[in-house]
Amino acid sequence: MAVSDWQSFIEQTDGRMADLRGGIPAVTKGFHELARAAIQPGVLDSKTKELIALAIGIAARCDGCLAYHTKAAAKYGATREEVMETIGVAVYMGGGPSMIYGAEALAAFDAFTAKS
């Protein structure tokens, strides 16, 4: 699926996730805590961890992962060049499909870092 408005995509997905949280609150709370703990800075900083998550999202062909992890990578100060190198690693690991999703990831990053 090609997303044309990444911010709207996140808003729509947030709404769907709210419905899911209502149905399986313990699972979603556990997942939230896992995500928070995984991204906390340690030996690797949060930006690096978000770029790793982005590469995995590209290789796994996950639109939601592209949206959330490009937005988070931008929040933690990732540059377009860092995202490009992350895409390169994802393509190395995931082949042609990762090339397509890498282009989508770059579009998402550009959308979240565009100057208004």
Characterise this structure:
With 116 residues, the protein is mainly alpha-helical. The protein has a single domain (6-113), classed as AhpD-like (Up-down Bundle). The chain has 5 helices and no strands. It has helices spanning 6-23, 25-39, 46-60, 63-75, 80-113. The protein starts with 5 loop residues before the first helix and ends with a helix.
Any key phrases for this structure?
116 residues, mainly alpha, AhpD-like, 5 helices
Per DSSP, the total helix count is 5
Named at the architecture level, the CATH assignment is: Up-down Bundle
The overall strand count is: 0
Low-confidence stretches: none
Rounded mean pLDDT is 94
The run of helices and strands is HHHHH
Please tell me what the overall shape is: globular
Lay out the secondary structure:
Layout: H1 6-23, H2 25-39, H3 46-60, H4 63-75, H5 80-113
Helix pairs in contact: 1-2, 3-4, 3-5, 4-5
InterPro entries: AhpD-like, AhpD_core, CMD-like
Protein name: Carboxymuconolactone decarboxylase family protein
GO molecular function, one term: peroxiredoxin activity
Short account of what is shown:
By secondary structure, this protein is mainly alpha-helical. Helices cover about 80% and strands about 0% of the residues. This is Carboxymuconolactone decarboxylase family protein.
